[in-house]
Amino acid sequence: MPGFEIFDDSEKQQVQEVMEKGFTFRYNFDGMRNDVWKARELEGMICETLQVKHAHLVSSGTTALSTALASAGIGAGDKVIVPPFTFVASVEAIVLAGAIPIFSEIDETLTLSPEGIQETLKTHPDIKAINFVHMCGSMGKMDEIKAICDQHNIILLEDACQATGATYKGQALGTIGQVGALSFDSVKTISCGEGGAILTNDSKIYDFAHQYSDHGHDHIGMDRGAETHPIMGSNYRISEMNAAVGVAQWKKLDRILDTQRRNKKALKDALSSYPEISFRVIPDESGDNAGFLSFMLPTEERTQEVAKALAEQGIPGVFYWYANNWHYLKNWHHIHQMKGPAKLPIDLIADRPDYSKVQTPKSDAIMSRTLSMLINLSWTEAQINERIAAFAKIFR
Ligand SMILES: *Cc1c(COP(=O)(O)O)cnc(C)c1O
């Protein structure tokens, strides 16, 4: 997954161009920037590659989620379905919007299941939106998910922060619902150092997005001081230096995806010969971003044993999410307590869920048996073969 592995002179040259000819701020200063507009350039590249009408860069994937929620009209008191298996940011963005996260079950796609969503709708018929997280580079059952959203008038927000470049039936993840979010943080498929993007085909959502992430500025004309402010917002802007890194990285997206797919296939083919292993269900395997190889073992005990054995064989980058602090609900004690530094909007909602009691048994049954292996870009053939040799010692 990590684009930083192939940083070279091209990223440096892009940043240097900003420092020598351009300006650090993404808007205005037309007279001093010699027509260097890195954020605009990267936004144009994203729109073209992902075939989406609008892409708006912000400071992170998390602020992209916050901006996407607000711009799609999701705010105080609104209920938003979210999976128990995700990075905490997907939940934090909902809580900080004043909205209410409602946890729903995942299936063996490792993303929200249509059945789980239907089940949640029985107890919460007033769900406003789904934050659909494309975990570990691939998608869920998007036709069924989209149909449920359309049927119940639910906004589909896609957290595609881990799935840059992935597609479902030819459509980029992040562009299937009304609005999507990408992350370009230091360890993602494309890295700007820090950065993120909001994707949408809806011009109204786009206008709110660029306004909201820049204090409500309308971005009309060349005089920032004379702009009007249709809404309030905040500062979630990306800097030109970060965007410049992204311009160089985005040009490598095809190479990154090709390498990941090739490396992942070699490992997956090798693991396929062991009957105790089953794989994450990927509804459109040709669109997988291939940043991770996720597989399941028959029992929780065996999974722990295999995780330990892989570590002992010196294989890094193997994640047992079920036991980790950052990616699974079970261990998010601060979220069970809804703990912020100060009183949160959700504290004013009398009938909010008691998050210390939320149960997701179907997801537990899957995640307790799932391991994910990070797919690196820099692996040599010998390093891939070392992994395959280690598998032979461990798997039955
Ligand atoms: C990385 C990530 C985010 C947040 O992105 P940042 O750029 O680190 O703020 C959100 N959701 C998921 C699923 C992620 O993996």
Automatic annotation (TrEMBL):
Biological process according to GO: polysaccharide biosynthetic process
UniProt xrefs under Gene3D superfamilies: Aspartate Aminotransferase, domain 1 (3.90.1150.10), Type I PLP-dependent aspartate aminotransferase-like (Major domain) (3.40.640.10)
SUPFAM superfamilies noted in UniProt: PLP-dependent transferases (SSF53383)
Signal peptide residues on this chain, from the entry's feature table: none
Record family assignment: Belongs to the DegT/DnrJ/EryC1 family.
Domain of life (superkingdom): Bacteria
Name used for this protein in its record: Glutamine--scyllo-inositol aminotransferase
Species this chain originates from: Hydrogenovibrio marinus
Pfam name, any one: DegT_DnrJ_EryC1
